[in-house]
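Worked example 4.2. Below are the chains of a multi-component assembly; read each line carefully before continuing.
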Amino acid sequence: MFKLSRVLPLTSSSRHTAQLLEMVSSRKVEVRDSLRDGCGFTYSASISTATNNYAAKGYASDRVFAPYTVYKGKAAFSISPCLPTFTKLDSGTVVVDRRGSMMMTFMHSVGERKYDWEKRQRFALSATEVGSLITMGAQDSCEFFHDPSMLSSNAGQVRKSLSIKPHANNNGYFVSLTVVNNLLNTKDYFSVPITTAEFAVMKTACSFALPHIMGWDQITNQQSRDTVGLQPKGDSQVLDLEWEK
Amino acid sequence: MFKLSRVLPLTSSSRHTAQLLEMVSSRKVEVRDSLRDGCGFTYSASISTATNNYAAKGYASDRVFAPYTVYKGKAAFSISPCLPTFTKLDSGTVVVDRRGSMMMTFMHSVGERKYDWEKRQRFALSATEVGSLITMGAQDSCEFFHDPSMLSSNAGQVRKSLSIKPHANNNGYFVSLTVVNNLLNTKDYFSVPITTAEFAVMKTACSFALPHIMGWDQITNQQSRDTVGLQPKGDSQVLDLEWEK
Amino acid sequence: MFKLSRVLPLTSSSRHTAQLLEMVSSRKVEVRDSLRDGCGFTYSASISTATNNYAAKGYASDRVFAPYTVYKGKAAFSISPCLPTFTKLDSGTVVVDRRGSMMMTFMHSVGERKYDWEKRQRFALSATEVGSLITMGAQDSCEFFHDPSMLSSNAGQVRKSLSIKPHANNNGYFVSLTVVNNLLNTKDYFSVPITTAEFAVMKTACSFALPHIMGWDQITNQQSRDTVGLQPKGDSQVLDLEWEK
Amino acid sequence: MFKLSRVLPLTSSSRHTAQLLEMVSSRKVEVRDSLRDGCGFTYSASISTATNNYAAKGYASDRVFAPYTVYKGKAAFSISPCLPTFTKLDSGTVVVDRRGSMMMTFMHSVGERKYDWEKRQRFALSATEVGSLITMGAQDSCEFFHDPSMLSSNAGQVRKSLSIKPHANNNGYFVSLTVVNNLLNTKDYFSVPITTAEFAVMKTACSFALPHIMGWDQITNQQSRDTVGLQPKGDSQVLDLEWEK
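Applying the procedure described above to all four chains together yields the following structure tokens:
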């Protein structure tokens, strides 16, 4: 385990990332797994074998990697947008296939500036959960419960809960994740104190990302692709959208 | 009617959508109607015959479909941006032909996780109505009245009202739509309770969408298309915009 | 004058616009003047002779026209972003040549749904004035004073003031423009009551437009044009921005 | 020194900029230094020799220059986004190499409308520091401390602190920078009073810029480059992001 924990030089998250990627790129099996989650965030989705597969599917071969990470004494977490995936129907219509989310990843500290990447835990905030987060006031708190195996035979075997609670002294919050896994018979707990400034970054960045994880940027971008969606002149009488079915 | 109601698996709205689209694509007449509303939101505007027509008009053949939907016990509603259409004048000027809106679609529940798509009702929020929505405080409420046949011979025959009212317990709102149709002699009522988190998503997503339904994104995008709208150097004395007529 | 006043069908601002453009396009001299102000907003900058000139300068030949207009009993005003113009130096650097603004245009009512376009008056809000507007609370008011001839021989001859003051009943504002022109020996006054919803649209749309009239969207767009502004690998040690001069 | 101070005509920041650029372009050595910081903001990064180097690296040859500047009696400061730089790994993954920031530049007044560009001092706000700024209330204040030589042999030799404190009369703030340089044995102090309107512009523009200096716009732009990141139909079962490692 210790051989897998990483030095995180606070002055450069990217070098750290690079190291992680080299490390990950040697674990082919895991790569193929996480590849399937189609999320630009996951470290393993970023490595070369992965991006080659993507290229085969017509993806850009580049994956941009820019999480916002909060490093604290006992644990760290990062957050990054995970875009929705789309499916094209025979009709040519593009529909959301899997919804986007804000992916949070937690790591334990295992020494000065060392965090245990191997034992990380993840929590994917839905659009509505992001709505809770960005609307929180200084006194508010929120808690979310997930069952990653919901609707599968393992339903209830793994329970995750994320909570955001204000500090007693009212300047900042505790961001905590609990993961109870009855399959592995483990219980995991992370708690990261954040400042109001760090929470403001999360709120502003999540507000920016929300329409993107909802896929609405793809709706509003359509017109640019349609050269301003012109209609032939003359065909311009006003029709009532509500009237039609 | 029951044969038309759909299972909505909450874990995947897209599969549901796909089913709807197959279903709709068999009803040619309706398709041609709703095609004319030119709004990326409508289900039927998305089917293949539709997109072919679009292609003929120089539209992208893809239509992206990503509504934000709130499913509750008795009813559900979805909301999605409906972009403005533009007309190009002989002068080359592009003007808004029909204004954009935020399209809301309501459906009754007709059983566990079943909603009656056939009897849906729609309500298109104007830019100013969106302004009311995004400025609402926790205690505020608002109500909008539409007559889809306004200025036509059927004026007053159909009356729609949408209201958003805070819960008594002050955490969330009721979103309700009433449609009185004297032509069909029907009265329809939908009410969907939403949480503050769901309302926060609506506010944030509508704030994002507002400049797009106003067409302002097309104004601000012009310069990118103009390669930063450069002027030949020398022709750069400052002129007073206000002074000119 | 009356022959110049226009019917403004509230259900379609664009047809109105079209008429105005035909009307304007016959006044060549004025066209050439207002062409020079390079602002996508001005009606006359949108007509064909204008766009031809633009094309000659490498502009897109299309001009998108989508003001937000508030029509009230005695007067109307519209607001629309007016993008900055840029100059390219011999060095290849692109600098702001004339700052952008939010252009407001006021018209008097001259009968039911008729507004006098010929006697319109304009007021261009600077970025900082937009800052005042978007930060206004329900009780706040603001007033701006402009001298379009500032620094010219006509300094002080024309004085414009725009004020935004809350209604007594505290739901909405009065938006008023006064123009005193000692050259023409005229005094002009417009006052348009707006609702909180209409003001919310103005605030949200102006907040969206602000970075664009500042030209910051051109800074943040650079990287996309630079294919994510990659640096050759290896040349990636962290340098201190503050240290350098 | 005086020969280096510049007239800043308040009606046109760009002409001023042009002059500065000519001036800077004669100082080759400094150019090469500041070129390396890769920030579109720095004056010297904008000059021709610079942009030629950039072009050689596949950069766009244009650099857009549009700071927001507040000129006051004793000093002035400007603020502008400084985008992150990225490194492409052999794997094809693009990672943040140096984080972006909001670059503030302070200059002393050296006469009516003259500011001493040569003795400017800079302070680069990190994403989290921007979070503090945009979340400040009317009564709040904040202070940041930087050591540009942190982790180098000169650590502690230069200390910078930026503070933003509300006016006593509660309409606006003082933005102050102190720089103590033990290497040059100098102490420098700037203080610029700003109005609530000017601060609102800073907050709104910084909120707009924050996702860009974090590099999140590059994440959300990926999909557009991926033509909506389509997956082949059929490969669309929902996978649980949290479940995977």
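Take a moment to check your reading of the output against the notes. The CA atoms of residues 1 and 198 of chain C lie 30 Å apart. Helices of chain C lie at 13-24, 28-35, 48-56, 127-134, 196-213, 216-225.
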